[in-house]
Amino acid sequence: MSGRETLDRRGFLAAIAGVAGAAAAGALSAQAPGTLPGSGPAGSLGDPTAAGRPQAPTTPRDDDARIQAIEKRLRCTCGCTLDVYTCRTTDFSCTYSPQLHREVLQLRDSGMTAQQIVDAFVKRYGEQALMAPEPHGFNLAGYLVPGTLVTVAAGAMLWILGRRSRRHDAAETLPSAPAVDATPEELARLRQALAESDA
Amino acid sequence: MTLLGQFALWTAFLLGLWCAVVGFSGRWRGRPDLTQSVTRAVYGICAALLVAAACLWKALLTHDFSVEYVWAYTSRNLPTYYVLSAFWAGQKGSLLFWALVLSIFATAAQALSSRRHAALLPYVAAATSSVVAFFVSVMLFAANPFERLAFTPLDGRGLNPQLQNVGMTIHPPMLYLGYISITIPFAFAIAALLSRRLDTGWIHAIRKWTIVSWMFLSIGITLGMWWAYVELGWGGYWAWDPVENASLLPWLTMTAFLHSVMIQEKRGMLKRWNLGLIVGTFMLSIFGTFITRSGVIASVHSFTQSNVGYFFLAFLILAGAFGFTLLHTRWHLLEPEARLESMVSREAAFLFNNLLFVGIAFSVLWGTLFPILSELVRGTKITVGPPFFNRVNVPLGLMLLALTGIGPLIAWRRASASNLRRQFTMPLATGAIVGAGLFVAGMRDGYALIAFALAGFVAGTVAQEFFRGIRARRRIHGDPLPRAVIRLVGRNRRRYGGYIVHVGILIYCVGFAGMAFKREREATLKPGESVELRSPYGHTYRFTHVGISQYQALNRIVSAATVQVARDGKAEGVMTSEKRQHFTVENGEKVPSFEPSTEVAIRSGLREDLYIVFAGPVNGTEEAVYRFTINPLVWWIWYGGLVLVLGGIITMWPGDGHPAPAARRTPATYGTALAGAAEPS
To answer: Is the per-residue pLDDT at B594 higher than 90?
Structure first.
C-alpha cells in the first residue's frame, strides 16, 4: 500500500458519519421553518400565468398611511369606481391603479404636499379624478342640499307641532272653565273646604 | 323549447294587457263573469311565465348553446347549481325571473286576500298585471332570453367567477323578491285610490306584504354586503355604489312606511303621507332597476349596457305620474281623523323618524344623481363616492339610531314629565356608561364613540321594555321566566318583534362603527418570512408565508397561498387565499375564460376578522404579495341581519297574537299599553 494513504476502519466510519451528518444537516436546513430566513430562492410555480398578474414586491412606502390617505381621495381611471388605494390592493388585474400609485409616489418625492398632489391629479385627469367633489361652487349644493332640506323640514315640523300643541292645550283648558257652574267666590269656598278636609 | 318559451311570453303579455284594460276600466263592476275573467287572467299569466321559465331552465341544464343567453352565461364545466342560478345572472334571464316572481305574488295576492277586500282585488289584478306586462314587453321587444344564435357553439363562455359564489345564488333572488313584492302594496294602494275605499282596509290588506317585502329587501341587502365582503376582496362590504344605493332607497322608504302606518292605524292620521310613501317606494324599486340596467351611471354591479333603460325610464315616469295624479285627485278624501296633540308624543317621534328616513333616502338619491346633475349644469363630470355619502349620511344615521331608542319610550298622544323621567333614566344611563367606558378605554373616534353610546341607549330601551313586560306577566300570572318571555312576545308579536328588529339594527350599527378601527398592511413575503400586524385590541398577529401550491379543480386552476397565523406568539393555524384561473375546454385545450379571480381567506370572530388577500406571485416564484387586514366587529353585521329577520318573522307570524283592533286603538299612555300587554289572554 505504499504511496497511498491508508484509511483504518475507525477513520472510514468517522468519514461516513461525517458525510451522513452533513447531508442530514443540509436536508434539515432546507426543511425546518426555523431556518427559513426567506433569503434563499423561492420555488418556481408550475403555471405562473394562472396565479394572476405578476406583482412587483411591495415597499414600506406602499403601507405609508399618508400615501394611502392621498390615494383614498383619488379615483382609479379604470372605470371600477374604486379609489386608487382600494383598486390597487383589490383588483389585481388592473393596470391603471399601480401606475397612478407610482404617480402619487413621484409627486410626493418631488416635495408636493397631499393637497398639491390631489390638485395635480385634478389638473391632469379632470375633476372626476376625485372620489368626492371639493366642497366649493356648485358642488356645495351637493353637500348642503340634503342637510338643509332635512333641517328646514324639521324646523317646519317643530313649528307646526308647537302651534298645534299650544292650540290643543288652549282648547283643553277653555271648556273646563264653563264646565263648572259656579261663581269664583263659590269656587274659592270649595277650594278652602277641600283644603280643610285634606288637613 | 325556445319556441314554446316565446309563445308563453306572448301569452303572458296578451293576458296582462287584457287584465289591465278590463281591471282599470271598472267594467267588471256588476259583471261577475268579467271579475272572474280578470282573476283567471292573473292565474293564466303565472302559468304562462312558469312555462317560459321551465323552458329557459331546460335550455340551461341541457347546455343548449344555440340559445344566446345559455351560451353567454354558462359552460359545460360549470357546476349544476351555478347553471341553475345563471337564470338570473344576466339581464334577460333576470327580467324573466322578475316577471315570474311578480306573477306568483300577484296570484298569491288574489288567492290569499280576505274576501273583505274583494272590491279591491280586480284593481289589484289590473295593477300587478300591468307591471308584469311591462316586464314581458321589455323581454319581447328588447331583451329576449330565448334569442337564438346563428350557429351552435360547442361550449359557452361560462359564468363570471365572481358570480360563482354561494352568496350570488341567494342574494339576487332575495333582493328581487324584495323589489318585486313592493308591487303588491303599491297595487293595493292604487286599488284603494281608484275604488275610493280609503279607510284602513287596504292598510290591513297589505300589512304582511309590506313586512315580507321589507324582510326580503333586508336579507338581500345583507347578503349583498356579505358577498361583496367575501368575494370582491377589498375588505369592506358597502361602497356607496349606485346599484347598492338603489337597493337601499326602497328599504328606507319602506321602513318609514312601517312606522308611519302605525299612526294611521292607531290615530287615523298620515293617510296621504302613507299612500305617498307606498307609491314612492314602488317608484324607487323601478328606479333601482333602471339604474342597474340602463348604464346611465357607472357601477361595478350593472348589467351590460343596453337599450332596456329607456323602457324603464318611460315606465318610471308613467307609473309616477299615474300614482301621484291619482293621489292628488283623492286628496280631499284623505283628511286625518285626529290631530297631533303634543310635540312630546310617540306620534311626533314617529314623524321625526319618518323625516330622517326620507331625508336619508333623499340624500342617497341626491348623491347618486348628483354626477348627472353636475354634468348637466356645469358640463363637468364628477365622482360622488364614499367620502361624500359618509359625510352627509353618518350624522343623519346617528340621529335615526337615537330615535330608535327614543320612540318606544314616549307615550302616545302626550307624555308627561314624570313619564319621561321614569322611561328615560335607565336607557340614558346605559348609553352614558357605554360611552364613558369606551372613552376611558381609549376610544377617541367621535362618530364611533357616539354610535356605541347610542347603541347602548337603544339596548337599554329594549331591555327595559322586555324587563317591565316580563315582570308584569310574572306578577299577574306567576309564569316562570321562559314562559313569561314566550307569552309576552307571542301575545304582542308586532310590538316585541319590532323591538327585536331594533336589536338587529343596533347590532348592525355596532358592526358598522367597528370598521373605524380597521388595520391593514401590504407585504411581500418569501416562504418562511413573516410580517406582524397589531389589532385594535392590542394583540399582535404574526403572519408567516408557508408557500404557494397549484392544482386543478373542476373548471379552474387554483394557486393557493398559505399563511401560518400566530397571535401573541401562540399558533392559531393556517389560512389560505387563492387565485383562480377559470377555463373552458376548446379542442381539448384549456382556454382561460376570465381574468384570474381572488378568493379571500377570512377567519371570523366575535371581536374581529382576519382577512388575507393573496395579490399575486413575484417573478413566477413562491414569493407572494399579500394584503393583511384586521376588520373589527364585522361578524356583528351578519348576525345583526339574522336577529333582524327573526324579529321580522315574529312580527308577521300568522295568528291572533296581536291585540284586537278595538284594543289597539289609541292607548293613551305607555302605562296603558303595558297593561294591555300584560292582560291575560
So the answer is: no
